Amino acid sequence: MASExxxxxxxxxxxxxxxxxxxxTSRGAGQGLSVDRIVRAAIDIADAEGLxxxxxxxxxxALGVGTMSVYTYVPGKAELVDVMIxxxxxxxxxxxxxxxxxxxLERIARDNLALYRRHRWMLRAETTRPVLGPHLxxxxxxxxxxxxxxxxxxxxxxxxxxxxxxxxxxSARAASEVVDLERETGLTDGQWWQSHAPWLETFLTAxxxxxxxxxxxxxxxxxxxxxxxxxxxxxGLQRVLDGISVVVAERAANG
Length: 255
What we know:
Shape: flat
Mean pLDDT: 92
Largest sheet: none
Domain HTH tetR-type: 32-92
Helix content: 55-70%
Radius of gyration: 23 Å
DNA-binding region: 55-74
Organism: Micromonospora parastrephiae
Structural class: mainly alpha
Keywords: DNA-binding, Transcription, Transcription regulation
Number of helices: 13
Pfam families: TetR_C_1, TetR_N
């Protein structure tokens, strides 16, 4: 899945800051700065204004320090975004593993969806090359626990988790686009479709397009628009879990 990040973090510098093995120089001493404070300020900016508004200068202004003082702790924006992602992963709840595998995966899916809703910028920042920080590793280890006792191979366990989280991210991205379009156009999805109603009534008739007319009308009534983010997420999640249940049943039968 493509990312809109314009810079690539240097792996060595990124890992050093993620695992806090890089010691700051004396430039930031005495100003109360720390990697954690800088990252928190950066997350607040990205949450409120998006990734495009995030610069090292902007972070410095938010903290009341010069830009070079920020660079003392974090070598660049790309590395900063890596630490922001890992820090956000650390916010996620990790309750004791309870219930059957389906209940566990549902909870994991909803927790990840909630994370994307809090930090929509993550949908742009994440790539298929994971940020290998401590919170990501802990998150991965915890979430694998949901399928650890199903008789799956290690590769299948990873694939199941990837499948569920892929659905979550796809759903979160679609829901985010709905929000962005409303902000950019000043119209909700419902209002946009209402403005197109005269055209639809004229051209999308039951005689000309019987299936599209019937199904489109039913979906529009259900969602109040052409697309319902919540319904799409719930429907898709259950179908993903249904598919996983087939694999689980096969492994149980062959075990």
